[in-house]
Specification:
Length: 260
């Protein structure tokens, strides 16, 4: 299948590691020009160099914190200065901390809101004027939009908001030929997942391996997913080959979520 990603301009946020990096790599492999960003200049430049080496694609390395409105405006402006338009916007951010309801004060809730929900609003608002017919917007959420995850109340709450936002945007932007989808990782082997397993292990006084064994037993495919497997789904949704999927909330979870 020809995905039609050759020559597209993509902005993938929070992409020096993990799922964002894997998506940037996949889009670059398919011939897109990709702007990547993260808070650490060293990490984002290292990742840009690695993607260039593997794909020969044009990669723009940007530094910024997506929880900050000014940083988002600057990241979008720098992408436009470089390439003049945005065809594909992939909204991603680091996940909020785990913990029970009573462990979070207003500051923690506001931080999660700014990082995981308001960032999507701001990114779409900044990028939209530079997106034409054929544009694609994707947000990385979580399987928790279908089945909340114990101990992740901040994430569970913000992802639900993102899901509502994206579904509404899909309808509003359809007449402009822009497709909008939410892609939801179940358990994909990244640094974030290691941190979550470690936190669960500490809470329960067991080893991270024991946590992983227990989780894997709930995944019909019997393993954590690889970032590349997630990225291939994202690349399809972001591509011209996807011409009729919009407003979808797609799980990439090896069958983990049991809801219909
Ligand atoms: N992996 C999974 O199975 C899974 C499951 C459910 C949901 N998710 C969600 O999917 C998203 C990506 O997860 P991941 O597993 O890829 O995480 P990860 O391995 O921890 O990578 C996070 C990436 O985001 C960047 N980042 C973090 N906060 C940022 C910010 N405020 N502004 C800009 N960049 C930022 C990090 O770079 P810097 O540190 O350099 O900024 C890094 O490149 C997260 O929201 C996570 O909660 C993941």
């Amino acid at each position: 299948m020809n995905l039609g990603l050759q020559g597209k301009v993509a902005l993938v946020t929070a992409s020096s590691r993990g799922l964002g990096k894997a998506i940037a790599m996949e889009l670059a492999r398919e011939g897109s020009r990709v702007a990547i960003c993260s808070r650490s200049r060293d990490r984002v430049e290292e990742t840009a160099a690695a993607i260039r080496r593997r794909t020969n694609a044009e990669i723009l390395a940007l530094t910024g914190d997506v929880s900050q409105g000014d940083d988002i405006s600057r990241i979008v402006e720098q992408t436009i200065t470089q390439w003049g338009r945005i065809d594909i916007l992939v909204c991603n951010a680091g996940g909020p901390p785990s913990g029970p309801f009573e462990s979070f004060d207003d500051v923690a809730w506001m931080r999660a809101f700014e990082t995981n929900l308001l960032s999507v609003v701001r990114l779409v608002r900044a990028a939209l004027p530079h997106m034409d017919r054929g544009g694609r917007i994707l947000t990385i959420a979580s399987s928790s939009v279908k089945q909340p995850i114990p101990g992740l109340i901040l994430s569970n709450t913000m992802r639900a908001g993102v899901n509502g936002l994206m579904k509404t945007l899909a309808e509003e932007l359809a007449p402009r030929g822009i497709l909008v989808n939410t892609i939801c990782p179940g358990r994909i082997a990244t640094g974030r997942l290691q941190e979550l397993d470690q936190a669960a292990a500490e809470r329960e006084g067991i080893s991270p391996d024991a946590v992983q064994d227990r989780v894997v037993r709930q995944i019909p495919l019997g393993r954590y997913g690889e970032p590349e497997e997630f990225a291939r789904v994202a690349a399809f949704l972001a591509s011209d080959a996807n011409s009729y999927v919009t407003g979808a909330t797609l799980l990439v979870d090896g069958g983990m979520v049991k809801a219909l």
